[in-house]
Structure formats: structure tokens, C-alpha cells
Amino acid sequence: MGGCFYAAIILLPQRFQAVDGISAERAGINLLPFTIVSPVFSGLCGVLLAKYQKSAGLVLCIASVFTAVGIAMLGTLSTDTSGLEPKVYGFELILAIGLGLMMPPIFFFIKVEYHDSDLGKSSCAI
């Protein structure tokens, strides 16, 4: 997931500038579909997991498929310098849906629960 976020947030705007020849400001604007849709789907997924906690594994699998497809599709963009291809926005949306859906289940699975008594015991050990 980290590598896909890196590719979307760092490498994609650099590609817009180097390959498509657009300004840094315009590259940031071209990244807006990703930066808007990803948190929206993350929030929706969080609401879904609050109601249906048993579906976290399924949501994570679906998110992984969206993420893999989005990254693969971004990898098919041509290196022609004639300008930005409109389909890049659709590829960004697919990747944003995948990464947005992926974040809440990961936090759900790595959540560590502890009791206050355990916290007190660890504080005394220090």
C-alpha cells in the first residue's frame, strides 16, 4: 500500500511534469481526483466497518484488487509527449478507490486492545 501511495502522490505528478510537460501547479491540479476520492472512500469504508466488522477481510481483498488494477492501468500510460491523456483521471479514480478502501481495514486488523490494568503494569516496569 505504501508503494502505491508513493507512486500516486510523488511519482505521478513528476510524470505529469517530465513526460507531459506541464507545470508543477497543473500537476497538482491533475492529482485532485485522487486526493479527493481517496479520503471519501476511506470514510465510507470506516462507516461500513463500524456496522459490519466481519466484512473487513472482504473489503481488504476488494480494495487490493482495485489498487492493483489502478496501478497496472497507470503503468500503461504512453510516454508520448503530445499531452496528458484524459484516461489518466479514470486510472487515478480506480487507484483512489482501492487505496481509500484499504486504509480502514488495515487499521482494524492492527488495532491493539489493552486493559487499563496492563497499562498500569507496564508503567510500573519503566
Provide an overview of this structure:
The protein has about 130 residues and is mainly α. About 75% of the residues lie in helices and about 0% in strands. It is elongated.
Instruction: Tell me, rounded to a whole number, the average pLDDT.
Output: 83
- Low-confidence spans: pLDDT under 50, at least 5 residues? none
**Can you summarize the main beta sheet?**
none
Q: What structural category do the secondary elements indicate? A: mainly alpha
User: Helicity range of the residues?
Assistant: over 70%
- End-to-end Cα distance: 35 Å
- The counted number of beta strands is 0
Instruction: Using the CA coordinates, give the radius of gyration.
Output: 19 Å
Shape descriptor: elongated
Would you list the SSEs in sequence order as H and E?
HHHHHH
| Beta fraction | under 5%
Helical segment tally? 6
Keywords for this entry:
single chain; mainly alpha; 126 residues; elongated
List the helices and strands and how they pair.
Layout: H1 2-18, H2 24-30, H3 32-51, H4 56-74, H5 87-110, H6 116-125
